Amino acid sequence: MTDTRRRVKVYTLNEDRQWDDRGTGHVSSAYVERLKGMSLLVRAESDGSLLLESKINPNTAYQKQQDTLIVWSEAENYDLALSFQEKAGCDEIWEKICQVQGKDPSVDITQELIDESEEERFDDMSSPGLELPPCELSRLEEVAELVASSLPSPLRREKLSLALENEGYIRKLLELFRVCEDLENREGLHHLYDIIKGIFLLNRTALFEVMFSEECIMDVIGCLEFDPSLPQPRRHREFLTTTARFKEVIPISDPELRQKIHQTYRVQYIQDMVLPTPSVFEENMLSTLHSFIFFNKVEIVGMLQDDEKFLTELFAQLTDEATDDDKRHELVNFLKEFCAFSQTLQPQNRDAFFKTLSNMGILPALEVILGMDDVQVRGAATDIFSYLVEYNPSMVREFVMQESQQNDDDILLINLIIEHMICDTDPELGGAVQLMGLLRTLVDPENMLATANKTEKTEFLSFFYKHCMHVLSAPLLANTTEEKPSKDDFQTCQLLALIVELLTFCVEHHTYHIKNYIINKDILRRVLVLTASQHAFLALCALRFMRKIIGLKDEFYNRYIMRNFLFEPVVKAFLNNGSRYNLINSAVIEMFEYVRVEDVKSLTAHIIENYWKALEDVDYVQTFKGLKLRYEQQRERQDNPKLDSMRSILRNHRFRRDARTLEDEEEMWFNTDEEDLEDGEAVVPPSDKMKSDEDLMDPISKFMERKKLKDSEEKEVLSGKASLSGRQSPSFKLSFSSSPKPSLSSPPTASLHPGSPGSPSSPGTGARSSPPTAAVTTKVVTLILTDQTMF
C-alpha cells in the first residue's frame, strides 16, 4: 500500500494572489549534488516526474500552518506551499527543514522576516523579546498602542506575534472582552477592537488558528462589533447565531468535516462583512487569511468527494419522488454551493470532481429537477447545469446523445433547457439569456472533440438538428405566419431576438446542417418577417441573420434568396424607415454595399431587375447606382463576348516585344564604345530603357492598319448592297475621339476608371510609359471600347 504520510499537493501563488495546484505526489528530502545541499523533492504519483526540486536554504523563512501546510518563498513574488495529507508527514519534513537550518522544530517559522534599516535591525536585535503589559482592564490602552506601533516594522510584528502566541495572550484578551461587555465598559471594548484588528494585520497563521478555534471565534467577532468610528455596535453574532443557521440536508457523520464547514463560513463572514474594506490595509496584508479560507475549501470539497455514502444518499433523495419540495429545495441549494466551492479547485482536481458527480448521476438528477414547477429549485438547477457546461460541455453532449436513444424528444435534457428558456417569466429574460449562452456553448464546434474513431461535431450536430432544432425554432415559426409578427410585445421580441442570434451563430459555425434546415423550413423568410417589428433591435437581428448568410457567398443560399424574392422585406424595411439616419438604414445599405463590392453577380442582377425602380432615387449614397453599373457591365459582357476577348488581347500585347529584337538591341549595346555615348547619357541596356513611342505603338499600329483595310473593304461591299436594296445594313462605326460620350451601350467602363484596361494608372502602364505614349494608348483603347452598332 502506498505511504500516504508523505503524500502532498504542490501549490504556487500566482499574480492574482491565488494558489495554483501544480500536482499531487510524494515528498522526500535528499542531498542533491547539482544544488550542493539538502533539498525537498516531490515526484508525481501519476508518472514519477519531478514536480518540485527545492534546496533548503539556511536563510529562507519556512512557515508551518494548520499542522499540514509548509509555506515559503523561493524568490521575490514566488511563493510555494506543500499541503500534506497527514499531519505526521508534515511533521517529519518540518523536522528535516529545521535540522538543516539549526532551528527548534517546535517553532512555526524558521527565520525572522527582516526588512528594515540597519539601525532598526541593530536596535531590535540588541533588545530581548518583546514584553507585553499584563492583560488587565487598566492596561488595555497601553496594549493597543503597542500593537499599533509594531505594525509598521516587520521585525517588531514578528516579535509581537511570538509574544502573543507563547503567552496565550489572545485567550486572556477574550476573557477581558467578556468582562467589558458585562460591565458595558465601552472604552475598553473600543481598545479591544483596535487590538484584535491589529492582530489580524500581523498576518500570522498560528494566531489565526487560535482566533478561529471553536471556543474563541465568536468572541473575536464580538470584539470586532465595537468599532470606535460607529455610534452603535454591529450585531454580527446575532446574525450568525439566529439568522444564519447550518442545515444538514444529509447528516454529516464526520465531526471534523462539520467543524471545518462551520469554521470556513465564519471566517469568510469575517473577511467579507466584519473587517474593514481591504483598501484600508497595505497590499497583501491579509494574504494569510485568504490562504486559510482557500485551503479550508479545498479540504471540504475533498472530504465530501471522498465520502461515497454521503453523495449516494444526496442523489438518491434528489431523484426520489417521495422527497417533499422543501427538502428537495435544500438539497439543490446544497449541491449548488458544493459546485461553487469546486471553483477554488485547480483544473485537474475540478475535472476529477465533476467526473465523480457524473458517475453519481448528476445529469439525470438535474433532468428530474428541471421538470419541477418550483421556480427557485429550477433556478438553482440551472446554475448547477451552467457549472457542468462551462467546465466540460463534452460530458453533457455525450449524456444527451445517449439519452435520445431511450427517451422521447419532449423529455430530453437539452429540450427541457430550451423550454425553460422559452417560458422564462422574467420580464428582462435574465434566465433565458443565461440558458441561451449555455446552448451556444453546447453547439459550438470549437470545443468539440475529434478522434480517429469518433467525431463529436458530426454526431452531436446531427442529433441537435434532428431532435432539438424544431423546439428552438417553434416560437419563431409560430409568430411569423403573416407579413408582420403575430405578437410584438417587448418580452416576445426579446425571446425572438435571442433565438435569431443563436441561429446566426449556427449559420456562421455550422455548414450543411443549418443550410438544409434554413432552406427546407424556409427559415430566412420567416426571420425577415421580423423586419416589420416595431422594435428596432429585433429588426436588426433579422438583418444580421440575412447579412451573415449573404456573407458566405454560397450559391445555394443565393438561389434560395432569389427564388423566394427575399430581398423584398429588406427593401420594404429600408423604404419604411424613410430618411431617418439610424442603424436600420446603415445595416441595409451595408448589406447592398457588400453585394456590390464583392461583385456577387447573381444577387446584383436579381436586385436591379426586381427592385431598381424602388431604389433608383436613393442618391445620398452611391451604393445603388454602383449596383446598377455592375449590372450593366455584366449585361454588356453577356451581349458582346468579343469585348472581353479584345481586352485580353490588348492586355497581352500592349508591351510585348519580339525576343529576337531584344537580343539584337542588347548585342548592339555591348558592341557600342563608351566614347560613342553622349555626355551625361546613362549606360543602360536597351532592354531596360523606357519604351519608345514606336515600340509601344508597333503592335497597335499594325492592328489598326489591318482594321482600317478591312473596314474600307466592308464599306465598298456594303455601299454596293445599299444602292441595290435602298436599305442600310448593320455596320460598325469606329470613333477616333479621345473622350467619347457615354451611352447605354457604352457604359462608364470606357471612361477610364482606375484599374480598367485603358486606365493610365492600371498595372503595366504606369512608370514605364512616357507621356506621349500614354496619350496615344488612350485613344486606341477608347476606339476599341466605343464600337457602336448602327441600325
UniProtKB/TrEMBL annotation:
Segments of skewed composition (Basic and acidic residues): 703-718
GO molecular function: protein phosphatase activator activity
Entry-linked InterPro entries: ARM-like, ARM-type_fold, EVH1_PP4R3, P4R3-like_central_dom, PH-like_dom_sf, PP4R3-like
Segments forming domain PP4R3 EVH1-like: 5-101
Composition bias type Acidic residues, residue spans: 666-681
Biological function: Regulatory subunit of serine/threonine-protein phosphatase 4.
UniProt protein name: Serine/threonine-protein phosphatase 4 regulatory subunit 3
